[in-house]
Amino acid sequence: MILTGTEIRRQVALGRIEIEPFEPAQVNPNSYDFRLGPTLLVYRNHELDARAPEPADEVAIPAGGFVLSPDRVYLGSTAERMGSDHYVPVIRGKSSLGRLGLFVNITADLIDIGSHNHWTLQFHAVQPLRIYPGMRIGQVTFWVPEGEIRLYEGKYQGATGPRASESFRDFG
Which domain of life is it from (predicted)? Predict the structure, then answer.
């Protein structure tokens, strides 16, 4: 079951969903629009290795925007700190940006219950596209879980900006 926008507002007021800062104007019929944080991470290497830490540079997104280039992966983050110990967040890009060829979190849209962060966002642009800090970049929906709840305690908990992949840790 997905929460409606009205129920998202109610659950935020009850403290069962964290969205900080919360802007009522960003509530939709069954989602909440989140905004792009002020920085991006850009990997230094063109060829990436899932078994090795990959160096990345942090780039401040200027007020005049930053142009995403094709054939690159960019990591951004939500301007809002979000999470819930009661609902499962699922994030997606805005359809209006998808119509401009921007892919947002195509392979990583499920957020673990109990994950409270400025969530890292993965971007891939089909063609050059200018993005801006604070723009509405995606939307989050909240789903009711069934069964015993185990809260997220993983490696990305507490992130305050974009975080590079730590997939190398999974190879132990």
Answer: Bacteria
Rounded distance, CA 144 to CA 114, Å?
13
HSE (CB half, 13 Å, CA atoms) of 138? 26
Q: Tell me the pairing of strands 39-43 and 74-77.
A: antiparallel
Q: Over the stretch 9-36, which tens digit does the pLDDT of each residue have?
A: 999 999 999 999 999 999 999 999 999 9
Quickly name the fold that domain 5-46+55-147+156-164 has.
Deoxyuridine 5'-Triphosphate Nucleotidohydrolase; Chain A (2.70.40)
Q: Is 42 left (phi over 0), alpha (psi -120 to 50) or beta?
A: beta
How far apart are alpha carbons 11 and 78 in whole angstroms? 20
**Backbone phi, psi, residue 105, to 5°:** 50, 45
Q: How many Cβ atoms sit within 10 Å of the Cβ of residue 4?
A: 16
- Structure confidence by residue, pLDDT tens digits, 71-85: 899 999 999 999 999
Q: Tell me how crowded residue 55 is: count the other CB atoms within 10 A of its CB.
A: 10
Residues whose CB is less than 8 angstroms from the CB of residue 16 and which lie 6 or more positions away in sequence, other chains included: 84, 85, 86, 87
| pLDDT, averaged across the chain | 95
